[in-house]
Design a protein that fits this description.
There is one protein chain. By secondary structure, this protein is mainly α. It has three domains: 73 residues, no CATH class; 86 residues; 170 residues, hpI Integrase, Chain A (Orthogonal Bundle). It contains 15 helices and six strands. The strands form two sheets. It has a three-stranded antiparallel beta sheet with strand order 1-2-3. The N and C termini lie far apart (98 Å). 22% of the residues are buried.
Length: 385
């Protein structure tokens, strides 16, 4: 059998279409350069329906070869399925090719963390589709497949409800884009309900645990304490920290100004800086460029941000080394900081603003926590009958 390197048209960016037959049926196969990746990729489409319509094998061969000839003429004239938009039949491109179009279109509008999450999901979906049939076409992915995919992945990967919901959002975003661009008529993930939110396991990082954590990072990775302080004292979410620039820091007014473009809620707010944070940032920001990310390599300002995955991995290693519970996450420092505000007498509206909550219902959740000193506090403030 001829190899790809023996096809003379390769210099033009393609290898001719040929009719093939395997156990699952007939198909036409060809190779063409993907302009998004600059690699030669295989494309194919099935001919089983055409074979059923033909009365004889000879009639089928004639029609299949005609299709091949027409396709090769288009390839020779510069046609490329990856760049075709106006004349392609909806649903006839592989899901993998559609994802390339999708990311090329929306990448500039997505936050880095969101883009990373969407690309991770796309890899998962494409791999699942390829196990069912290689080069599954967009139009072949049904609503039944959508349900089966989510059910199988949830069971195999042991997704929590929150993870299930996040992946459902990723799937719906991609297929909604496909509908808007007229590649398909219906979103196969439409109508699938999100799972009920699970109660968050809020492990308070008490003073003893915080002392252990501080001691660990002082010995092993002192710069990481800046992240801990920003989460605990300033109540800035880890993902928001990764987006902060030097220009967001206002040392004169003792705040970090978070624009709505980098916050979870899309609302702007001022995060208060403690005296300790002011001292650390004053030292770190000396000579820094305002456009630099606040935390880069070495936990100092720089051109490239550190990903939240690195934050989590560093925290997880510390937690394991210090034998702290799995429920004590980096985000738990923020929860603890919010609870501390309540314990120190801050009113609900003050806490709501500092924590960047949508409403007081969210803030009130933090009032419902186990207080080890509850008995002592009640006895102290109770009056005699």
């Amino acid at each position: 059998m001829s190899t790809l390197s023996q096809f003379s048209p390769l210099f033009a960016g393609y290898a001719p279409a040929v009719v093939k037959h395997i156990a699952t049926g007939w198909f036409i196969e060809y190779y063409v350069t993907n302009p998004f990746t600059q690699t030669l990729e295989r494309r194919k489409f099935r001919l089983n329906n055409l074979r059923k319509r033909c009365r004889t094998a000879m009639e089928f061969r004639v029609q299949a070869n005609t299709i091949c000839s027409q396709l090769n003429m288009k390839l020779a004239n510069g046609w490329n399925p990856f760049t075709e938009t106006s004349n392609e039949k909806p649903g006839t491109l592989p899901i993998s090719a559609m994802y390339e179009k999708y990311f090329a279109d929306v990448e500039k509008d997505l936050r880095p963390d969101t883009l990373r999450s969407y690309k991770s999901f796309s890899k998962m979906l494409i791999e699942w589709c390829e196990k069912k049939t290689s080069d599954m076409l967009l139009g072949d992915f049904t609503d039944v497949m959508a349900v089966r995919f989510l059910d199988e992945q949830r069971q195999e990967r042991k997704w929590a409800n929150a993870t299930f919901n996040n992946n459902l959002v990723s799937a719906q975003a991609f297929f909604t884009w496909c509908v808007k661009k007229k590649y398909i008529e219906k979103n196969p993930f439409y109508g699938i309900e999100k799972k009920k939110k699970e109660a968050k396991k809020r492990t308070v990082v008490n003073a003893d645990a915080r002392a252990i954590i501080r001691d660990y990072f002082m010995k092993h990775q002192q710069g990481y304490l800046l992240i801990c302080e920003l989460v605990f004292q300033s109540l800035i979410r880890p993902a928001e920290i990764s987006r902060l620039r030097v220009s967001n820091v206002d040392l004169e007014n003792k705040v970090i100004r978070l624009d709505g473009s980098i916050t979870k809620t899309k609302y702007s707010r001022n995060a208060v800086l403690s005296d300790e944070l002011i001292e650390i940032l004053s030292r770190n920001l000396a000579g820094a460029d305002p456009d630099d990310y606040l935390i880069s390599n070495g936990y100092l300002p720089g051109k490239e941000p550190i990903s939240t995955k690195m934050y989590r991995n560093t925290w997880a290693k510390m937690r394991k080394d210090c034998h702290l519970p799995d429920t004590m996450q980096l985000y738990s420092l923020r929860d603890t900081g919010i609870i501390s505000l309540f314990d120190n007498g801050a009113d609900a509206n003050t806490v709501k603003g500092a924590a960047d909550h949508h409403n007081l219902n969210i803030t009130s959740i933090y009032c419902d926590h186990v207080d080890d000193n509850l008995v002592e506090k009640v006895r102290k403030h109770s009056e005699k009958f």
